[in-house]
Amino acid sequence: MKKSPLILIIDDNPNNVKLLEIILKKEGYSTMSALNGPDGRKLAEMHDPDLILLDIMMPNEDGFEACTRLLSAEKTAGIPVIFLSAADDVVSKVKGLTIGAVDYITKPFDRREVFARIRIHLRLKQAYNAVIEGQAAKLRQIGEAQNGILIKPEDLPNASFGVLYMPVLDAGGDFYSVFNIGDGIYGYFVADISGHDIGTSFVTSALNALLKQNANTIYTPVETMKMLNDVLRKILKNGQHITACYVYLNRLKSTLTVVSAGHPPVIYMKKNGKIELLQGKGDILGTFESAIFNPVTIKVSGGDRFFLYSDGIIEGFDGNKKTRSQGIKELSDACFDTRQISVKQAIAKIKTSFFPENTNPQDDIVLLGVEV
Fold it and tell me: CB–CB of 278/296 below 8 Å?
């Protein structure tokens, strides 16, 4: 059976409350009531009413303060508030509407006017919720499509990697890819796309396609990055840009090449635990006509590891902000502490350490760990 709208009445006069309850119930509405602001706010948090009828002149916490607190609290911010008050002066009306109430009805009121206005604002809320849900559904579809192009460790087991991917929105602004370039040769790519809107999903799809076309044995890693830059300059809009890091691992020659486009350094850890930061300097993607990249190439050995990541994991969150150097040191220490377990297990353990249960990062997160 369809649930009837729930209306919360907050008024310090029991007679007013009783009258409103009677006439609202006769129209098919469910009601609950409170005789003061604090109790009303508690009921609103617990039961999430569809609308609140709020008196202004109440002792201790008046209606203006109650409304302000309701609309500033996360659980009740979206509930429409209608003031029902004997104060009919313009100053009170303007103040009530300015602090966020959707309407203002003066006492004594005509019940027909009350019902008409209640219906209008319930319809507006219903329409607003439908729009939000529609947008959320589109984002979920985009997010599912985006996740569909992300390679999982089980999809490419010989690439020997583990990954943590935590987008803030369903369609994230960070991107990673792992791909087989040739026999014993693999590419690892992490990017951070400026902005976190729906448009980033287009850019991640474009990046994925460009890497498939241009990351191969015909082109050097630097040539691949230059091709990415040339194409991205034509499709990125309004100052949008990308920082990225491309690691080219040739297991047959035991060499690792890092090409960076304004991205944080790669954390490289030898099998004995010694850590080195590999900073291949280069221009960000999508901005400069002739981007310059200075790669770093080193010799590697079996059992060595390297970690690529986006800056969200090193910048801190929830008031725990840190400098970039502090964040890199903290992440490097976490990589060192997990050197005795598999790289997949290491990524999982670092996730638990950096993002305990119920922790919500404020930026997209990518952490890609690879064992040579």
Answer: yes
